[in-house]
Amino acid sequence: MVLGVGLIVGAAAGSWLAEAPAKGAPTPESIFTKGQDAWRNTPVDTLFPRTVEGLAAGPGGADRTWTRIAVAPDTDCTARYEGPLAKELAPAGCARLLRATYVDATRTHVTTVGAQTTRADRSGMMDLNARFSTNDLADHKALMPLPLAAKGTLAEDFGPAQRASWTVRILTDVPVVVYTVSGFADGREITDPQPADAAVQPGTATTAAESGLGHDAKGLADKISATFRTASGVPARSTEVAS
Asked: Which helix (H) or strand (E) holds 76?
């Protein structure tokens, strides 16, 4: 009988231990709240890593590596830094805007990443996401983000006319909007920019698609979205595929 009681108690303890992590998991509310201050409480090298590895993130499933070459001082969100996109994001408010520019391993592509922390609550982020999705705002050429053309870097000639591909991500689990815009480091002008989601489709014959600039924009948006989610306490997935 003593042995039986011991087995029952042991089984109960094992069950309790197995359930403990689940009970201690962060709630969506706590994650969202922590995300409001991720830009303030997390080192820039964590949010915008010096080197970003994109496994299978390139054309044909090739690996990509991006190196950070510039970081802008954090600032308020204005049209000066975001262009017409700022007006469309205005309903969510702005707490802070962080931006950085990366170059690929061949030193021929540059990509600016922006991360705007909003003042919206969870409902507000859902509404913003719905409006962008319903109206395909993320694909509008007029709303392409502005690049960070840092002087003295490979991106110093990366201006509005050099933009080739872009994406805009409205995150809803954290109050952050992540966007990217890519182009060539040699300053060549692009006449046919294309949204990243379209440029990464097999068989697409545009500058953004054939050069891999669409993959740069999409891959870095995926990675930086992940760093902000991690900084906000979103549990890591056991299997994460770079895309």
From this structure: none
109 - beta bridge partners? 184
Domain boundaries of the chain, sorted by first residue: 28-231
**Residues near 236 by Cβ (< 8 Å), separated by ≥ 6?**
230
Q: How far apart are CA 136 and CA 123, in angstroms?
A: 20
Distance between CA atoms of residues 199 and 184, nearest Å = 15
Report which of 47, 227, 38, 180 is spatially closest to residue 118, judged by C-alpha positions: 38
Give residue for tokens 């003295």: 152
User: For 19-49, how does the pLDDT look when each residue is reduced to its tens digit (9 = 90+)?
Assistant: 334 567 899 999 999 999 999 999 999 999 9
Q: Name the E strands within the chain.
A: 51-54, 64-71, 96-104, 109-117, 165-170, 176-184, 194-195
CA angle, corner 70, sides to 41 and 104, nearest 5?
110
Amino acid, res. 55: L
| Residue in this structure with the two tokens 């931006």, named with its chain if needed | 99
- Reference 220, options 181, 189, 184, 186; nearest CA is 181
**What confidence tens digit (pLDDT) does each residue in 172-230 have?**
999 999 999 999 999 999 999 999 999 999 999 999 999 999 999 999 999 999 999 99
